[in-house]
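Run log // design_07
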C-alpha cells in the first residue's frame, strides 16, 4: 500500500465514522422527540432532555461540516495542509461532533435513570 492509498483509506475511515456518528445522533433526536410526545407522566429533569438534544444537534452539524470539507479536500482534488485554517476547522468539527454526542448520551442517560427511579 502506497502513502496515497493510506491517505485515501484514512479519509474513508473518517467518513464512515462521522456517518455513523451523525446517524446515531439523528436517530437519538427522533427517539427523544417520540418518547417525550408519548410520555403520559410528569418527567423530572426535563432540562437534561434539552441538553441532550443540543448535544446531538451539535454532533450532527459538526459531522456535516467535517464531511463537507473533507469531500472538497479529498486527496487528488485540493491539497489540505493540517496547519491551514480549514484543516483546523475540520479538526475542531471532528472533536466537537464527538463531544456533542458524548454530552447527548450522558444527559439522556441521566434523564432516563432519574425518571426510572421514580417509576
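design_07 sequence
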Amino acid at each position: 500500500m502506497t502513502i496515497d492509498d493510506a491517505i485515501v483509506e484514512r479519509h474513508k475511515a473518517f467518513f464512515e465514522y462521522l456517518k455513523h456518528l451523525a446517524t446515531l445522533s439523528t436517530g437519538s433526536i427522533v427517539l427523544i422527540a417520540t418518547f417525550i410526545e408519548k410520555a403520559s407522566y410528569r418527567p423530572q429533569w426535563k432540562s437534561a432532555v434539552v441538553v441532550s438534544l443540543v448535544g446531538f444537534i451539535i454532533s450532527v452539524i459538526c459531522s456535516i461540516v467535517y464531511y463537507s470539507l473533507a469531500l472538497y479536500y479529498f486527496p487528488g482534488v485540493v491539497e489540505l495542509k493540517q496547519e491551514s485554517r480549514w484543516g483546523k476547522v475540520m479538526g475542531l468539527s471532528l472533536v466537537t461532533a464527538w463531544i456533542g454526542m458524548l454530552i447527548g448520551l450522558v444527559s439522556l442517560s441521566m434523564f432516563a435513570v432519574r425518571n426510572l427511579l421514580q417509576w
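The mean pLDDT is 83.
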